[in-house]
Amino acid sequence: MGVADLLFKRKKELAEKNLRSGQDFLVENGKRESVTTLPSGLQYEILVETDGPKPTAKSTVKCHYHGTTITSKVFDSSVKRGKPASFPLNRVIKGWTEGLQLMSVGSKFRFTIPPHLAYGEQEVSKEIGPNSTLIFDVELLEIK
C-alpha cells in the first residue's frame, strides 16, 4: 500500500468517525428543549431574540461569530479578532445561508450545522476534518 492509499484510507476513516460523532451529537443536542431542528437538519438555539427585518439569501450581512467543533475546539472567531465580518449569504456554507435568514439585527443564535450543510467531506483545516459538525454562535449586527 502506497502513501496515497494510506492517506486516502486515513481520510475515509476520519470522515466516518466524524460523521458518527456528529450524528450522535446532533441527536443529543436536539433533545434539549431550547433547540429547534429544521427539516434540513440545521439546529438552532435563540440566545438573544429581537424583532425586525430578516436578511434574505441574497443579502449581505455583518456579524460577529465564534466557531467551534463539537469537541469545543475554536477554529475561527471574529469575536476574538475584535472585528466583525461582512459577507453575502449566498457565498457561505448552506447552514449559514439558512440560519441567518431566521435572525433579525441584534439577535444572537447558536447554530449546530451538520456536515452536509457545512463543508461535507472536505477537510478544511486541522480543526475542521471531513464530515465535521460545526457550532457557531452568531450575532447579526447589520443587513446591508
UniProtKB/TrEMBL annotation:
Per the record, what are the reactions this protein catalyses? [protein]-peptidylproline (omega=180) = [protein]-peptidylproline (omega=0)
**Could you tell me which residue ranges the PPIase FKBP-type domain spans?**
58-144
Top class in the EC scheme: isomerase
Q: Does the keyword Isomerase apply?
A: yes
Which InterPro entries does its entry note? PPIase_dom_sf, PPIase_FKBP_dom, PPIase_FKBP_N
Q: Which UniProt keywords apply?
A: Isomerase, Rotamase
**Superkingdom, taxonomy of origin:** Bacteria
Give a yes or no for keyword Cell wall biogenesis/degradation in this entry: no
A GO MF annotation of the entry reads: peptidyl-prolyl cis-trans isomerase activity
The cross-references to Pfam families, in alphabetical order and at most eight, read: FKBP_C, FKBP_N
Q: What's its EC?
A: 5.2.1.8
Q: Which GO terms describe its biological process?
A: protein folding
What family name appears in the similarity comment? Belongs to the FKBP-type PPIase family.
Q: What is this protein called?
A: Peptidyl-prolyl cis-trans isomerase
